[in-house]
Write a structure and sequence with these properties.
α2 links the parallel β1 and β2. It is globular and about 60 Å long. Strands 1, 2, 4, 5 and 10 form a five-stranded mixed sheet that branches. Strands 7-9-8 form a three-stranded mixed sheet, with helices on one face. It has a two-stranded antiparallel sheet with strand order 3-6. It is built from ten helices and ten strands. By secondary structure, the protein is an alpha/beta fold. The protein has one domain.
Length: 313
């Protein structure tokens, strides 16, 4: 059986080979039918690729507990989450770090989930009504105006926005230089996502360390995904006029083929970057757990354990 990284990556590669870029297509926020919490990171794109109308997903066990069942012949979709367990010495005693906290080992777990449409005798919960009357472009503008990431300035000579790490500054051209406003916001969000990687913010090596091919590819994917998260939140992702050349798609096929863990790691970082742009993540320093995960994603030392009873965020 393929490991979960490869399973997830294969699903994205299949879409790319069809000419579909998963993170460029609008999606309805998928959520667990029991907890009603949204799925995050790479799970967002994995579930969106299934193109289901219902936003509700569940494990087989949850379907049974809700009094229903999964229709015969339906295939599940894998989602992932991280868990930690305490490290123990040879005597079975929990090991402590210098601060007296238990040392922990992270491991990836996964669950198989089904969409509500794949089940029977389960009623969909009522979705909370969105009372927001703002237009999508108004929402995008508000995200931009509230973004307190770094200095932004107008540069009429530019054909597109750019982030300058040495100056920690985003320069933005006029919106009139774009074929449509949605593409302008997508481009600016992309550069703001790069800016979140500054050492004083989320401290990503794609921004703080010298550029290398693999490091650059990961940072670009983080910015691409983060911009998609923000545009989808605003409701303008479907209005962005992407120009996907065969070279663009081939470049991501190559990157994902070289590193099956790339998409999972980049999706997690992109979620954090989008939250930072929206002001929902003001933590300057990574938690110990985040530092550990950053080190092990892309390393073969991570423990894999199957967890198909319950999925988590």
């Amino acid at each position: 059986m393929k490991d979960i990284y490869q399973q997830i990556t294969d699903r994205m590669v299949e879409q790319l080979k069809k000419g579909n870029v998963p993170w460029q297509r609008p999606w309805v926020e998928a959520q667990n039918i029991v907890t009603q919490k949204p799925y995050r990171g790479v799970n967002t794109f994995v579930l969106a690729c299934e193109e289901r109308e219902s936003p509700f997903w569940m494990t087989y066990r949850q379907a049974v507990e809700l009094g229903g069942n999964v229709k015969k012949g339906e295939k599940s979709t894998p989602i992932i989450y991280w868990n930690f367990k305490d490290m123990k010495d040879d005597k079975g005693i929990v090991m402590l770090d210098s601060k007296g906290n238990p040392k922990q080992i992270p491991f990836i777990r996964w669950a198989n989930v089904f969409n509500l449409e794949q089940t029977e005798n389960i009623k969909a919960p009522e979705l909370a009504k969105d009372g927001d009357t703002r237009l999508p472009l108004e929402k995008a503008q508000e995200i931009l105006e509230k973004a307190q990431v770094c200095e932004m300035s107008l540069n009429a000579q530019l054909s597109g926005p750019c982030y300058i790490p040495l100056l920690d500054k985003v320069e933005v051209p006029s919106i009139q230089r774009y074929p449509n406003p949605a593409l302008f916001y997508h481009s600016v969000f992309h550069e703001l996502a790069h800016a979140t990687g500054h050492a004083s913010r989320l401290n990503r090596e794609g921004i703080t360390l010298p550029r290398g091919k693999e490091r650059y590819a990961k940072e670009e994917l983080i910015a691409e995904l983060s911009s998609s998260f923000l545009c989808n939140d605003a409701g303008i992702l479907g209005e962005v006029e992407f120009k996907n050349s065969s070279a663009y798609i081939s470049s991501w096929l190559e990157a994902l083929g070289n590193d099956p863990k790339l998409l999972i790691a980049a999706s997690s970082s992109a979620q954090k970057a989008a939250e930072y742009v929206k002001g929902e993540r003001e933590i300057q320093k990574k938690s110990t757990r985040e530092e550990i995960l950053d080190m092990i994603v892309g390393s073969s030392s991570t423990q894999n354990e199957r967890g198909n009873e319950h999925e988590r965020e």
